Each structure stands twice: as structure tokens, then as C-alpha cells.
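At this stage, I wrote out one protein's amino acid sequence and its C-alpha cells, and that material follows here:
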Amino acid sequence: MAGQNASQRTHRYDAFLSYSHAADSAKADHLRRGLQNFARSSWRQLRALRIFLDNASLAANPGLWPEIERHLADSGAFILLACPRSADSEWVQKEISWWRAGPGARRTLIVVTGGELTWDHGTGDFDWERTTCLPRTMAGMFRDEPRWVDLRWMSEQDPGSLRDSRFQQCVADLAAPLHERPKEDLIGADVTRQRRTKRLVRGALAVITGLAVTAGLGWVNAVQQRDEAQRQARLATSRQLAATALNLKDGNLRLASLLAIEAYRMQQSPEAIATLNRLSTDSPHLVSMVSSAKDISALAFSTDDKAVAVGDEGGAVAVRGADGRTLRARTSLPGRITAVGFSEDGKRLAAGDSKGNVGVHDLTRKTLRRLVPLPKSVSSLGFSMAGQVAGADEYGTVALYEKSGKKVRSKRRGHSGKVTVFQNVDSHLLVRDEVGGGALYTVPELRTILESNQLSVPAGQYVAAVSNGGHCFGYLKFGQLISTGLPKLKGHESLAGTCPDFPALPNEEARLLALSDNGRMAVGTASGITVADAQPKGQSGQLRKLTGVGRPSLLQFSDTGDRLASAHGRTVALWNFQQSSRTAHAHGLPLSDDQTMIHSPSLAAGPDGQVAWSNLMQGDPVVKETRLHVWSPKRRGMLMGGDALLYDALAFSPDGRTLYAGTGGEVQSWQVQDTAW
């Protein structure tokens, strides 16, 4: 048997379980598992006893009783689960009869699961009047009273745990004869095995826990090292991007800004923050940069400096706000755009292309009217105050169109017209070229009043330009601007004038030149753009370097000269010389100039945009009550107060509702509201 050595085992099964399927199926299976697990020699042993249970041991077979007989014969003991229903069971009676005819009572064990079992000592047999759990076929089977196991306390629906103490005692009672060992030895062996198993489990848990902790610590360390490696990689990449951005800032501020932003997003390193701060303060006059689908070929500002037209090589024209952020209109012509110009009121835009096509786009109605084309590529376009359109092509043909679009006159003078502009309340038309010549015509007859074919440019390398109004023509050579005017003509003395004096430029090769009528010059070089203001007599002119763009291919001033558009490939940069910083914006508040002050007046900024200062406004009386001012963007007005002529320091509270003012060794506090204080 399983409880004995392998050499002593004579049966395949240590015991055969006979029971009623209807009454004790769960109990039989529970008892079988209890006997198999009880008193195992080690955790490696699969089972301590082999117990036959038909539901667990039998396979499908056409002959059930012969199969049961074969297993009865191959079992070393017979365990009967006795109850009234098993006593009435035909199969149980057949199994008892077979066993009684064979081994008999010597290897029969009774487990009572229901009913009554009583022994009659007088007759030496069971008291069959009171016994209800055994069949009558067992009468006379036992000579002496057998010791039976009571399992009537166990529920069929919920047999309980295999480690239940009462169940363990019952299992020990049955296992002792099957193992042929004393009950106390088996219980001791089982307890010893359980303790050993617990120790093994605890040891295994300890080892697993130790390994898990070690693995966890290793994983945490690996994650920390990975995170640190990733942080170091991000930091290195951020620093590299920041360094690259600084290297590119003079030639491509847009790309440099994108790299700096990416460097900051990747890692908020000191280098990335410093680069962002530096790029935000570089090129203070730069307003924005906009892109086109094709290379830029023509630029023009509206007369009020509020819009800019951008034409490209693909024939598209885009009208944007002067800040470049809003797209107001789009139109197109078949050829490369070579000239654009706004009407005086800014509501119409004229455009010409390389094929001589001319079109007028109504920016209000979003419609395009095609005019009679010029023979060659359009070089300049201009509007009169009455809405007439004048155009010139590269061969010198000048055409005049009515506001309706009808062509009135055309004339060929033989020189390209770089600038076409109406003068003297639309009574005359001035056309100037890029070599110093020009012509003046009457409107609408196009009768020639003045024509100059003089060649004012030198031999060799130079760059020339003419201002939007046609009053200033000049060429740049060896860093010096030299200007010439048209011949003197009575009533048109301004045409004979020249450009103002400009300071000499650094020794750098000029590639492009633009002039304004108010005394400003822009020079495109290989490294960017240099802007020079006119040089007053006895003073030196101002030179400014516009960084952030590459070598420009086009330069165009606005009519006021306060704005400049430069093109580099497909990118247009818009500049505003009235803008002193890209990160600071003036409130436009007129402060008085206290010339006796030896230091700047106190100033403080609040969290909601409030500004407080201690100084007089222009026109304020010199009294204490007007020395302290607070400007609020919410109410777009100012609050005035104070009781001192001068405050040394000002500061807002974090919520912006209290203003602290320091003067004369004391601190005053003021409650600030949107309407009063």
C-alpha cells in the first residue's frame, strides 16, 4: 500500500470507497482527498494513499459491474459510507456482498454519514431493529463490535476544510489501519510534515520575497538610471539646440526661435532659458515673419501702414495685416508677380505679372478685375486719389487706366519704370527708373513735360534704388550713398532735389538697396540688413543692424518709412521702426519731464497689468495730490492721489488691490479698486 514500502505493496488501491451517489458524493470525494493528503512523507509525494472512487477513477466502459469487480479485487480495504440511502442502494449491497465473500470483515471500515448504528452485545451482531444505516446483507459479518467513524456532523453541501481538526481525527482513524501504523504516529508524522512544509513555504516565501525585493530594488535603480540617462540626454540635446539657436539667430531668427522653444520644451535648462530670453530681445524692430508657397517676388505697404501685399513667383498675391498675423485677402495672376500697389484708401490692390497682365482686386468685395495688359513684364503700378491706375513695364511703356478699368492712354518712353506715382493732385504722373532717369507726364493726356534719359550710375559694381514717392534716387558704392535728381523744372522743383546725407556704411558688400522719402535707407548684405537714418548737419546718423534674417532678395519701405518688408526666399520679415522692443509695449501715457530730478521716478507693475508711478502727467499742477498715479487696463483710466511730493519706492500686493508707497522712512498703503482708492 501507499503507506508501506513499494516492495510490500500488493494492491493497486489501498482502499475502495463504497457510498450512495445520491446522499454522499461530496463527502466521499472530501474523504478521498483527506486520506490521500494525510501523513505524506514529504511535499514531493503526490499522495499518501491511493483510494478508489468511481467518479474519480472510472473511465467510460460498456461493462460497469465487471470493472467495479476488478477494482474491488485490486483494493486492499473496503470503506463503507453508511447511511439509510446507501443501505437501500443496490450497488452498495452488491459491493458489500462481493467484499464479504472475499476479504470479509477483516479489511472493512465503516464511516457513518447518516442514520443510526447500534451493536447488540447479546447477539454479537448489529441491533437490526435500531440500526438504519447498514443493509441486512451485513448481518453476521462481524464477530466483534467494529470501531466505526462518525461523519454525521459533516454537511453534504459544504464539507468544510481538509485541515478541520474533527475531520483530521476521522481521517487518522481510517488511515491508521490502512498504513498499518499507530494513529498517534501518523498524527505526529502529519504534524511533522505540516511543520516541515510550513518551514519550506516560509523559506520559499522568504527567498521569493528577498528575490522580489532585490529585483524591485534593481528595477528601481535601473529606472532611476534610465531616467537620469534620459534627463542627461535631454539636457545635452537641449543645450545643443540652444547653442545652435544662438548660432542661427543673426541669419534665421525664425528657425532659431523654434529651436530655442524646442530646447526649452525638452529640458528647462539654464541655457535654454537664457537663449529664449536673448532671442526675445534680439531684433527689437522685428514684428513677425510670414511664409509663402513660392519665392517672394513683390512687396508693397498700404499708405496707412496697416496692410502689406506679398506677391510670389507662382502668381499668388496675399494681403496681410502689417503685423503679418491676419490674412485679409488672396488673389492671383497667370505669371510671376512683379509689381503690387495699394490705392490711397487701401480698399483696392493693383497687381502685375511677368506676362504683362494687370489686375485690380477690390479688397472689400473680394473681386478681381483684369485690365488691358501691358506689352512686357509689369515693373510698377500706382493709384491716383481719384482711383485711376497707372502702370509701367520693363520696356518703358506707360499706361493709364480709368477707375472703371478702361485703358485711357499708353505711351512708350524706352526706359523701365521702377516707380510710378501721381503728383500735384493727380494732374501729373511721375515715372522713374533705376539708373537716375525719369519722365513727368500730364494726366490724362500723358503729354511729356519732362523727360531725362541721363545715366547717373557708375561703372562697376553698385546697387541703386528710388524711393516710393520718386523724390529720392541714389546708388551705393564703397559704403557711400550718392544721389542725383532730375533736371530743374519750374513748378516741380522737388524733382531736382537729392536724397539727404547718410552715414558711411561698414566695409561690407551691398547686395540690395531701398530708400524712403523721409530719410531712411536699408541695405541688404550677405549677413542681413543694415538700416541708416539721415545724417543731420553737424551730427552723425544712426546705423542699425537688423538681425534674424538671411541675405534679403527684396526690400520695400512703407510710404512713411516707419515700416520695412524684407524677403528671403519664401519668407517675409516685417519690421517696425516705431517698435522699440518685441517684449515691451508702451501705454502711451504722457509723463512730464522733471529736469531737476536726479533719478528716475518710482514705478511699479501690478499682477493684472496695473501701472503705478510717482510723477506728474503733462499739464498737471505741481501739487501733492497729483503725484501718485495708478493706470488700470480694465477701466482704461487713471487714479490719482498721494500726500507727498516724492515717493522713493512703490510696490503692489500679490492680488493687486493694495499699493505700498515708501517715502521719508515710512511706508504708506493704499487700497486700489477699479473705480476709486
